[in-house]
Please model this.
Amino acid sequence: MKGVYTAIVTPFTTSGAIDYPALARLIEFQRKGGVAGLVAGGTTGEAATLSFEEKKELYAFVKKEAAGLDLIAGTGTNNTAESVELTRMARELGYTQVLVVTPYYNKPTCRGLMAHYGAIAATGAQIVLYNVPGRTGLNLPAAWLRELAAIPQITAVKEASGNMAQLADYLEQVGPGRFAMLSGDDFTIAPFVALGGVGVISVLSNIVPAETVQLTAAALMGDVKKAAALQVRYNALNRALFMESNPIPAKTALHLMGYCEEILRAPLATMEPQNRAKLIEVLKGYRLI
Model:
């Protein structure tokens, strides 16, 4: 794994169903932008409000429509049995890689996490372990990651704490080659790669895929000056995309850009008017609308 993986939004129709024509347009936008791959059914894809059958249809559609890209299915939940079932289903559809968030709300111990990831690993899938403390209430300690490294099916880590010191702690504990380290925080792509990361699972790339690819490629090539300049250039857009809970601003931006409807599943709601107005100004500033 290397480069930009877009955590793609799941567009909905006005009736609330998955909007597959819009999703096809979004996938083509990503392909033209040069991304390495896509994550289907992740946090940005509103996985928490998708049914099992909807996820099955979504994974199958993305698998077919995005052929040639490196694809990852978001199968992590806070229920081990459900995560295993989703992972098996994704495997049957041809996915080899799954994104598995640390169980949210439950707040398991290290032993609990070992059992959780061990059960999912038994499916044969390659696991991208996802640490996102802002969503889960659990920030994975470096010592726990060292224990989890004993599970060979965990091949990568999406680290979304935004804490570069924590990334250094991870690398200190497991070494630079055990996991493909992927940033889960668009604000820190350049420093994350400089410290040893190999890419990003991105929200930003939903909106500016080619530019996110440029930023990440510069960082991977060691062009610190260019990577830093691009990181700073897109800082305002990153701020706008996280004014409210992801993916509310990202989906709003894509609607304003003409790619999909501005529809989210409850309990998510459309942007507050004052924030939507700010987002519009930012998008205009980048000449995206």
Q: What stands out?
A: The chain has one domain: 3-221. DSSP finds 13 helices and eight strands in the chain. The domain at 3-221 is CATH 3.20.20.70 (TIM Barrel).
